[in-house]
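PROTEIN DESIGN WORKSHEET
SECTION A - STRUCTURE
LENGTH: 312
TOKENS:
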């Protein structure tokens, strides 16, 4: 674990399979200790975590604030408008200043490039709490959830249905490539994932056994999978494209019909917030196959593992 100390987490592309496994194991350990009554693990006592969020958040904010507290840290939460960033101080200067004061930064941004600038000029680790490119902390919780419900870390067959070019699709591909998953992105061609993530998965797959399929066909993508995953059709920041996205993605709604094609083994997953009646129907998200609340719960334990391991 020592090799992770001081590292930032912007994308799983920057992590080896072994490092992902270390964080997954630590997450499981954090959760077990929590259930045994050991919530407080004060390994970062006296330290401070700055959380800057350009967009709203329920799960990520609440889990990182709680995780930090349970590790002994104080958190400072702010939107950029309340900082001098809102009046034009640069991201670079902000990073130089705050990283001389706090011990870690968790940031949710519109443009992934903001995270890169922040990290380049920060002396302390930066954790991506969601960008337009990827959402790494969410999928660590998803991998933990799949481990719990399927009893295995490797070889998970997962179909992501919907907007294949969004942050969730990219992060599922990246973590799945490291954990040797059979990943299917089921999406209209217009929204296929970015080349970088596809190429990384093809490359790593040779070592980890991961396979990536990108298809427009629901039948081909979801038949026989362990999990069907979906996400909103219009991500935060994409509101201008709402009309077109609603139209093109409508055939990819996860409803009981699609779950029937997937088959008996398939659990339903969603990072949340869900737009009921759009990407998923009530009967699916509220069914006994749905593990969405367990995913949300696991945000806490994985956030704790990430902070415990990365903060110096
Ligand atoms: N899943 C997720 O990241 O949710 P929030 O936007 O509420 O943080
Ligand atoms: N793709 C969604 C994920 C929300 C957690 C968005 O970016 O809005």
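SECTION B - SEQUENCE
RESIDUE ASSIGNMENT:
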């Amino acid at each position: 674990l020592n090799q992770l100390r001081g590292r930032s987490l912007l994308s799983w592309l920057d992590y080896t399979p072994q490092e992902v496994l270390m964080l997954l194991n630590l997450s499981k350990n954090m959760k077990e200790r929590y259930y045994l009554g050991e919530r407080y693990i004060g390994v970062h006592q006296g330290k401070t975590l700055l959380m800057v969020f350009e967009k709203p958040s329920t799960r990520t904010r609440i889990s990182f604030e709680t995780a930090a507290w349970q590790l002994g840290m104080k958190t400072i939460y702010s939107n950029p408008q309340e900082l001098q960033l809102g009046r034009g101080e640069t991201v670079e200067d902000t990073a130089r200043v705050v990283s001389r004061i706090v011990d870690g930064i968790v940031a949710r941004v519109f443009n992934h490039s903001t995270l890169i600038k922040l990290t380049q000029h920060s002396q302390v680790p930066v954790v991506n709490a969601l960008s337009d490119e990827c959402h790494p902390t969410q999928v660590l919780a998803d991998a933990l959830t799949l481990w719990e419900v399927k009893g295995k870390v490797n070889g998970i067959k997962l179909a992501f249905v919907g907007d294949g070019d969004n942050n969730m699709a990219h992060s599922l591909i990246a973590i799945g490539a490291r954990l040797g998953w059979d990943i299917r992105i089921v999406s209209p061609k217009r929204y296929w994932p970015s080349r970088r993530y596809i190429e990384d998965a093809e490359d790593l797959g040779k070592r980890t056994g991961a396979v990536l399929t990108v298809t427009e066909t629901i039948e081909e993508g979801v038949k026989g999978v362990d999990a069907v995953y979906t996400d909103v059709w219009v991500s935060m920041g994409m509101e201008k494209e709402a009309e077109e996205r609603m139209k093109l993605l409508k055939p990819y709604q996860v409803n009981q019909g699609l779950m029937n094609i997937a088959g008996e083994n398939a659990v339903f997953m969603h990072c949340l917030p869900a737009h009921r009646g759009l990407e998923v129907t009530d009967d699916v998200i509220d069914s006994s196959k749905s593990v969405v609340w367990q995913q949300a719960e696991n945000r806490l334990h994985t956030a704790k593992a990430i902070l415990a391991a990365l903060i110096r």
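SECTION C - NOTES
Residues 130, 166-168, 231-232, 235-236, 271 surround norvaline (ligand 2) (CB under 6 Å).
The chain is about 45% helix and 15% strand.
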